Amino acid sequence: MGGSIQMTQYVASTTKDRLHIINARVTYRKAPIHLLEKFAFTDINHAYDILKDKSGLQECIILQTCNRVEVFGVSQSTDSDRLLDGWASAVDLSESEFQNVVEISSDKDVMLHLLKLAAGLDSLVIGEDQILGQVKRAFEYSRTRQHVGSHLSILFEKAIKVGSRVRTETALNKGSVSIGSMAVNLAGEYFDDLKTKKILIIGSGEGASLIAKSLKLRNIDFVVTSRTFQRAKSFTDAASGIPITFEKALEEFHNLDLIFVSTIAPYYLVTYERIAKAMVRRKKALMIFDLSNPRAVEEKVASINKVKLINMDQIAEVVEKNIRSRRNEIQSAEKIVDTEMKSVDILMKRTRVEPMIISIFKNVDEIRARELKKALYILKDRIGPNDAKVVEQLSRAIVEGILSAPMNNLRKEIELGVADQEEIMKAIAKLFVYDNKESY
């Protein structure tokens, strides 16, 4: 009886929207690091409660790093409005503030995005190792608090395996491939010990975050300034470093050993006059990296004694050589992702059909057990315990033999996706709804 009720409920559920995986994200691609802070969840547990309640998410995982804030969810709809409404409520923003910075994906696009992310193909620094650990921690945090079910568990477990495989089977995570990390490497070659140097970063955008990240990984202290102190503070809250005002930074030029400039200012922030004045009070060398577009360091600065100026073009040339040498590794990583994408797609399709198959087996097994009980009652005086076991095994074998082939064929049809899956599942579900009579 229980199986019949469960099967009837399943038939009803197939008429509703099936469950979808959705993802909303604000990342370095559309929002500078000082802006990303606005979208971050300060109270993560409260955020989960709001997202599941207000956005109607049945499963949820929040991923936050200094370069991205992402929400992965499972819902009966791919409509992102409810998700953004919940997100906006959790961070006290209006939905309009998401318009130009948020990216939305659903179903297969989410799967591909997460696999690439875990592999290091969607990071600021291609192949970075840190993101894989961040994906693992986000998944574990959500799972231990029972915010995930079968859909996100399958997807994240596969993504973590893909990320590990890419790092084991390719050299994608070897070497520097960003302007920022390459600049820090060159500075490390120029100075004996960067940890003893006074370092300033001017800027709070994507390029500055890469520099900060490379310095942080080497446990090197640095200060940060930007157009406003609040931007500098927001940047350091997310990416490390000590914020200072721009006016204070200008006063400290003579005390600095290394300056990284990465801005989009349309004028020179570091002028010949300022550096010449600073060098009058300084005996040691000063190294300046201008990673801005347009250039923010006056070119005449290079003519000042004991000043080493390196601009974007010089570093970009070195980085391009590095990327060319790693192109095969990127292609190898993408092939792994493509192969695993097919696998995860099949697994996700199985999550839709398996509950129905389990219900069918349970339903039929209840009938088998009921009819077996009747037969054994009739034969009770003519067979012994061993014969009864043989009859029971026979009944189980008959059920297994009859159901296995059609259920495996059903799995294949759903996995291949060559027909109308919804109609197939509805038809099969209806075929296996039995009445609740005790006899036929």
Summarize this structure as a short list of keywords or feature phrases:
single chain, 440 residues, alpha/beta, Beta Polymerase, domain 2, Rossmann fold, 3 domains, 6-stranded parallel beta sheet, 4-stranded antiparallel beta sheet
Written overview of the protein:
It is a single chain. With 440 residues, the chain is α/β, with parallel strands linked by helices. The chain has 3 domains: 17-172 and 332-348, 2-Layer Sandwich (Beta Polymerase, domain 2); 179-305, 3-Layer(aba) Sandwich (Rossmann fold), CATH 3.40.50.720; 352-431, no CATH class. The protein has helices at 2-13, 33-36, 44-54, 81-91, 108-119, 130-144, 150-169, 179-190, 206-217, 229-239, 246-251, 272-280, 312-378, 385-416, 421-431; strands at residues 20-27, 59-65, 68-75, 102-106, 199-202, 223-225, 242-243, 258-261, 286-290, 307-311. Strands 7-6-5-8-9-10 form a 6-stranded parallel sheet. Strands 2-3-1-4 form a 4-stranded antiparallel sheet, sandwiched between helices. Helix 9 links the parallel strand 5 and strand 6 (223-225). The chain is elongated, with a radius of gyration of 30 Å. The two termini are 14 Å apart.
Q: Helix and strand layout, with pairings?
A:
Elements: H1 2-13, E1 20-27, H2 33-36, H3 44-54, E2 59-65, E3 68-75, H4 81-91, E4 102-106, H5 108-119, H6 130-144, H7 150-169, H8 179-190, E5 199-202, H9 206-217, E6 223-225, H10 229-239, E7 242-243, H11 246-251, E8 258-261, H12 272-280, E9 286-290, E10 307-311, H13 312-378, H14 385-416, H15 421-431
